[in-house]
Structure formats: structure tokens, C-alpha cells
């Protein structure tokens, strides 16, 4: 039992790998952006997500569009949920990030590398197309 909530085995496992994935992503803060990058020498957005979840024990596809096909769509974000973005609200996402709580996400952006952003960021918010829980 954690606080007043109780978790089933699968809920506790999900909370555990989500926490691990976030911890891995945070450990890469400041890593430069690299198109096609999937390691600490440089990440693109989906490379960071794939790397972080792999270190937490979950295998994900390589691109944002492929990852978007996985998991369950969610309306209310929880830590570890994946956020997807597309220009002009296109159906096919071109960017993915990990929600870390407190209206923030971590991602690898071409302008800043691995960094935090707010969910209400004026650049990203209009491109948000949905979230998935893996």
C-alpha cells in the first residue's frame, strides 16, 4: 500500500517501469539532439523514449509514429505517459515526449537536446494530438 492507494501487481509494475523510464530520461538532461540518435552521444525524440523505456524493461518501436500505435489512449496524464505531437494537428505524430508530472514533459528537441518543457508551452501545446499509456 502506497499512501491511501493500493496497487495490483500490474499497476505496481507499471508505476515502477514508468518511474525508471523517467529517471533514465532525466539522467540524460543536456544530451545533444542528434537526428536518428539512440544513445547518450545524442538522441532524437523517439530515440530518447525508446532508450529510456528499454532501460526500464519495455521495448518500444523506433519512431514516434510507430510508438503511437502502441499502448492505450488516455485523457488524463499520469507520470510516464507518452505525449505525441504533430504539426497542424496531423494524424501522424512527428514528436514524442514523456510526461513527468506537474504539467511538464521531458523530450529531445532539435533546439535544446534533452530538456524539459511545460504542457502549456506555446510552441508544443497547439501540436499536441494525444497521449498513450504503455
TrEMBL record:
Keywords from the UniProt entry: Hydrolase, Protease, Thiol protease
Family in the record: Belongs to the peptidase C40 family.
Domain of life: Bacteria
Protein name per UniProt: NlpC/P60 domain-containing protein
Record-level Gene Ontology MF annotations: cysteine-type peptidase activity
PANTHER family noted in UniProt: MUREIN DD-ENDOPEPTIDASE MEPH-RELATED
Organism: Peribacillus muralis
Domain NlpC/P60: 15-134
Amino acid at each position: 500500500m502506497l499512501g491511501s492507494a493500493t496497487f495490483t501487481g500490474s499497476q505496481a509494475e507499471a508505476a515502477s517501469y514508468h518511474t525508471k523510464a523517467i529517471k533514465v530520461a532525466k539522467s540524460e538532461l543536456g544530451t545533444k539532439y542528434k537526428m536518428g540518435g539512440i544513445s547518450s552521444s545524442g538522441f532524437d525524440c523517439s530515440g530518447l523514449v525508446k532508450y529510456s523505456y528499454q532501460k526500464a524493461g519495455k521495448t518500444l518501436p523506433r519512431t514516434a509514429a510507430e510508438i503511437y500505435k502502441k499502448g492505450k489512449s488516455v485523457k488524463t496524464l499520469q507520470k510516464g505517459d507518452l505525449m505525441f505531437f504533430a504539426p497542424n494537428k496531423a494524424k501522424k505524430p512527428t514528436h514524442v515526449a514523456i510526461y513527468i508530472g506537474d504539467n511538464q514533459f521531458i523530450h529531445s528537441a532539435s533546439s535544446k537536446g534533452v530538456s524539459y518543457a511545460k504542457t502549456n508551452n506555446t510552441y508544443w501545446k497547439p501540436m499536441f494530438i494525444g497521449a498513450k499509456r504503455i
